[in-house]
Amino acid sequence: MTTENAPSSSKVADVYDEITTVMAKLWNGNLHYGYWSGPDDDSSFEEAVDRMTEQVIRRLDPRPGQHVLDVGCGIGSPALQLARDHQVTIKGISISSRQVALANERAREAIGLAGSVSFETVDAMSLPYPDGTFDRVMSLESMMHMPDKLRALKEITRVLRPGGRLALADIAQPSLPDDGGDGQPKAETSDETYSMVKIDEYGALLREAGLEPLEVTDVSDQTRRSSRHFVAGAEDCREEYVRAIGEEEFERRLEEGRRLEWTPEIGYVLIAARRPEG
């Protein structure tokens, strides 16, 4: 169950190599959506981003001493938060070598976390770890970048020990009343770095990968306002972004970001799953 317009791994790596240094200045290095409890929640974006990390960690249900794989680690903020709060050992992976270098630098500087968090450049569709290496796997907004989502999930299943859990947050396509059922997002985009699974198809995708879905929750309404904050952050760092990606590409991404909040075909899902015993 893969999308026809699959992302390009090399393009994903190039994009994140370009913007990582700029993004590191914003939101304590977090590169993912925020979570608001409802329309009356006036939390700042920084607070909402931390709450999204907490939503994923709660679904991960980590225990002290466990080994965790962070698929699509960014520059390490969620992994560092998890290690500080739950005394686990974490391996973070990204296809962007620049992200990995910065994440390892931040891990070395983190007080009290020596040796418990490390990062390396790895393709999630071909994990270099033995079967059953990890007790837990988490993934914040990396599955949308996978050219073959089923293959990536099968690799996650393989490296999870029996009984191990996956917690996943992903940009995905909600079911809409006028959905034509073709499985493709109707929002126009020229982005070559992501493709979306329909939220109501995620359970079947997880089962096909060998995982038992525990929760598939549409949180599109709780996350939509993230787009306005991404746009504001990009505008605050306009000069750095333009140096990294050029004026034309910056304006294209800015305009696309402005549309996202009001694009109902683009939503957000929180997932918990486990590898069955035996």
Task: Explain the overall architecture.
This protein is of the alpha/beta class. The protein is 39% helix and 18% strand. The chain is built from ten helices and seven strands. It has helices at 9-23, 45-60, 77-86, 97-109, 149-159, 202-208, 220-223, 226-236, 238-245, 247-260; strands at 67-71, 89-94, 117-121, 134-140, 160-172, 212-218, 267-274. The chain has a seven-stranded mixed sheet, with helices on both faces. The longest helix has 16 residues, at 45-60. Residues 180-191 have low confidence and may be disordered.
| Alpha-carbon Rg, integer | 18 Å
Overall spatial form: globular
Main sheet properties: 7 strands, mixed
Overall pLDDT level: 86
* % residues in beta strands: 15-25%
Helix percent band: 25-40%
Strand order of the largest sheet: 3-2-1-4-5-7-6
What is the CA-CA span between the terminal residues?
25 Å
Quick rundown:
With 278 residues, the protein is α/β, with parallel strands linked by helices.
Structural topology:
Blueprint: H1 9-23, H2 45-60, E1 67-71, H3 77-86, E2 89-94, H4 97-109, E3 117-121, E4 134-140, H5 149-159, E5 160-172, H6 202-208, E6 212-218, H7 220-223, H8 226-236, H9 238-245, H10 247-260, E7 267-274
Parallel strand pairs: 1-2, 1-4, 2-3, 4-5
Antiparallel strand pairs: 5-7, 6-7
Helix pairs in contact: 1-4, 8-10, 9-10
